[in-house]
Amino acid sequence: MGQYHQHVFVCTYGPYCPFDGDTEQLLKRLKERVASSGLNNEIRINRSGCLNQCGHGPNLVVYPDGVWYAHVQPSDADEIFESHLLHGEPVQRLLHRAPPGNNKDSAHYPPSVRELEKQEKVNDKRRAALYADLRAAAAASASASETPAGVSAAATEHDHAPL
User: Pairing mode, if any, of strands 43-48 and 6-11?
Assistant: First the structure.
């Protein structure tokens, strides 16, 4: 088993789960319950990216149990914590009973919410490009600092300056 006995992932990504309920408050309440019970070293509560269960949210999943919950609201956090996380009894009324895989159903959302999904994808591409640039700059900086002994950085820069 990994570092934690249980790991809870709450979908906070994209437009659908946050539209269906306050995922930030759900996440916050679960974290509060874990902390106030002194279980931070046994139970980890994390944000997750999209769980591909859009339309059934807010969603969360508990591992290693592999228990998926749907339509979870902040008011359900205490019950999930007490029943499932503390006593190992999943909350039956919130179980997400669906076949494995992508069960996304976003047709019923207003167009403005679906438009947010497109914006999220654009933001993801921008974020990936930014991280690629940051990694490249860090690598360039690291290789520049690996100047051979006895050669000044200024001399090295001069040798590579454009003519």
Answer: parallel
